[in-house]
Amino acid sequence: MSDDEIKQLCLMDIDKILHSYGKILKDYPPMPLATEVDSSLLTKRVIREELNFNRDDLKKNASDMLSIATLEQKYAFNKIVTAVYCDEGFFSVYGHGGTEKIFLWNLMFTEIRSRGDIVLNVASCGIASLLLSNGRTAHSRFKIPLNITEYSICNIKPGSPPAILLLKAKLIIWDEAPVDGLIG
């Protein structure tokens, strides 16, 4: 990435932060303004941020975590990781509070990322997202409106950086996912 592209991305980030406070870069005349940046550059940045980790460290961490996992956690881990690489779809893991589901999520996250793949960790609430490695709220990650109506949709546009990130994700872990309509 060129110095100018880095500068433009930084200016865009500053402008985004200022927007959250009801301001824009134009409110500060000495500051340069961001010019339009190619969307592929934004996509590359989003993907790069999700791949910005040390794979060797993750491999060691995954090995260490697996060595202390319970038999049930190892079973679920093996089944799910195998399914991820065989494109076998959706899993739901149920367990009462205190059954170390977060440990399992973080183990799978660490293992799959150690292979160079993207894993998105989300939770339905902010506190739960803090317990996940690189976790975010589902509302933030999937642009889910906070006030949902029958006409609500996620605000991710086809071809946008978040849409491409979702397509490239090998696994999405959603802690405390609302599954009422998914299980029949």
UniProtKB/TrEMBL annotation:
Keywords: ATP-binding, DNA damage, DNA recombination, DNA repair, Helicase, Hydrolase, Nucleotide-binding. Its cofactor is Mg(2+). It is an enzyme of class 5 (isomerase). GO terms for molecular function: 5'-3' DNA helicase activity; ATP binding; ATP hydrolysis activity. Residues 71-179 form the DNA helicase Pif1-like DEAD-box helicase domain. InterPro entries: DNA_helicase_pif1-like_DEAD (IPR010285), P-loop_NTPase (IPR027417). Gene3D superfamilies: P-loop containing nucleotide triphosphate hydrolases. GO terms for biological process: DNA recombination; DNA repair; telomere maintenance. Pfam families: PIF1. It comes from the Eukaryota. Its EC number is 5.6.2.3. It catalyses: ATP + H2O = ADP + phosphate + H(+). Belongs to the helicase family. This is ATP-dependent DNA helicase. The lineage of its organism: Eukaryota, Viridiplantae, Streptophyta, Embryophyta, Tracheophyta.
